[in-house]
Amino acid sequence: MDATDRRMLTALQRDGRLSVTDLAAEIGLSQTPCARRLSRLEADGVIEGYSARIDQGRVGLPVSIFIWVELERQAKDAIDAFERAVRGFDRVMECHLMTGSRDILMRVVAADLADFDRFLEEKLMRVPGIRSTRSSFALRTMVKRQVLPVG
């Protein structure tokens, strides 16, 4: 990946709806080489896809909850089983395998406390192999970046 690829990625992170024509003009390439580079970045998996950023509060999911999960066992099969289960929960926005005393850190969205309680009772607490959980509610987001510093 060279400097031109990095400029392309920066421009697309700012505005994923750029046409190839506009992207080429912004980074100083003609359309055909720009389109070739774009196709290569997509094929190589550098660009994973395109999507709209949605304000979670405006769609009725204003609450973010961070949940630390400790598993009963840290064996690969137990971690894989947990991962398969939570992949099916649409409220789980992020789920990370962590180092330290807790195994998993998840970010979940909810409409309110009752909605979160339903998620816990009907989804998360039914996943086998969980030893304990600890939840923290985000009061506000202080920094949220969508643009990786690829430049």
From TrEMBL:
CDD domains: HTH_ARSR (cd00090). It comes from the Bacteria. InterPro entries: ArsR-like_HTH, AsnC-type_HTH_dom, Dimeric_a/b-barrel, Tscrpt_reg_AsnC-like, Tscrpt_reg_AsnC/Lrp_C, Tscrpt_reg_HTH_AsnC-type_CS, WH-like_DNA-bd_sf, WH_DNA-bd_sf. Keywords: DNA-binding, Transcription, Transcription regulation. Residues 1-62 form the HTH asnC-type domain. SUPFAM superfamilies: Dimeric alpha+beta barrel, Winged helix' DNA-binding domain. It holds the Pfam family HTH_24. This is Lrp/AsnC family transcriptional regulator.
